[in-house]
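User: I'm putting together a teaching handout on how sequence relates to shape, and I'd like one worked example. Could you take 2-C-methyl-D-erythritol 4-phosphate cytidylyltransferase from Pengzhenrongella frigida, show the sequence you're using, and then write out its predicted structure as C-alpha cells right after it?

Assistant: Happy to. First the sequence, then the C-alpha cells directly below it.
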Amino acid sequence: MSTAAILTAAGSGSRLGHLLPKALVPLAGVPLVVHAARRLVGSGAVDLLVVTAPADSVADFQAVLDGAQLGIPVSLVVGGASRQASVAAALAQLPPEISVVLVHDAARALAPSSLIARVEAAVRSGLRAVVPGARVTDTIIEVAPAGGGALDGRPLAGSVLEVVDNPDRDALRIVQTPQGFDRALLVRAHAAGAHRADDETRAATDDASLVAALGEAVHVVTGDPDAAKITTSRDLRLAEIVLADARA
Ligand code: C5P
C-alpha cells in the first residue's frame, strides 16, 4: 500500500501582503512549501509528493523543491481556479499504485510529522476519510444578517448580524490538514463535486466536506495547534515564534 501527499500551494500571497506566491514566502529563511514538505517526508508515511503550484511560478517551485533534496519523488502540477480544482488536478496525476492520499495545505507549514503520521495510520487502519480536529477555546456563534440597527435615524456603521445558534463548544472542532483518504473514495468525492470546482465562491474549502456530501463517514483524530493555517502577516510572525520554540 503506497501513500501520496498532495501539497496544495497554488494560492496567492495577497493576504500575507507579499508579491510572492504564499507558499514561497520565507519563514526563518525557508519557503513555507519546503517547511510543509519536510514534515511530510519526516513522518515516514509518504512515498510520493505532488505539489500544486500557480501556473506562472512552476519553475520557481521546481527550483525550491529540487534544492530541498527531499529524498522522495516530487512532481509539480499546475493549480486550478480554486483549492478544490487544484486538488482534482493533482489527483488525476497519481500513479496506479497509490491507495492512500493525504491532502495538505502548504499554508499549514508547521503541521508536525507526528500529526501527519497519525492521520495516515488512521486511514491505513481502515477509516476511509480522516481529518485532524482541534478543540476550540472561544465560544462560537452562528450568525445571519439582521434588519434594523439605527441611531438618531442613521444606520449603524458596519453590518449588524443576529445570533441564530449557540452550538455546544465541546462538540466543535477546527478542521485542519493533512486530511487522509482512501484514494477511490476521494476520487469519487471530487467527481461528484466537480461542477463546483471552477467557481471559487462555491468550491469546497476542504476535501472531507466533499466526502461528507456523498453521505460517507468522516472520522476525526486529535489535531495539533502547530497545524494552524498561516494566512496573515501576523500568523507568519507567530509561526516564527513556534519554530524558534521548537528549536530551543
Ligand atoms: O486560500 P486558502 O488559504 O484557503 O488556501 C488553502 C491552500 O490551498 C493553500 O495552501 C493554497 O496555496 C492552496 N490553493 C491551491 N489552489 C488554489 C487556491 C489555494 O492550491 N487555487
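A couple of points you could highlight for students: The chain has a mean pLDDT of 95. The CA atoms of residues 241 and 247 lie 10 Å apart.
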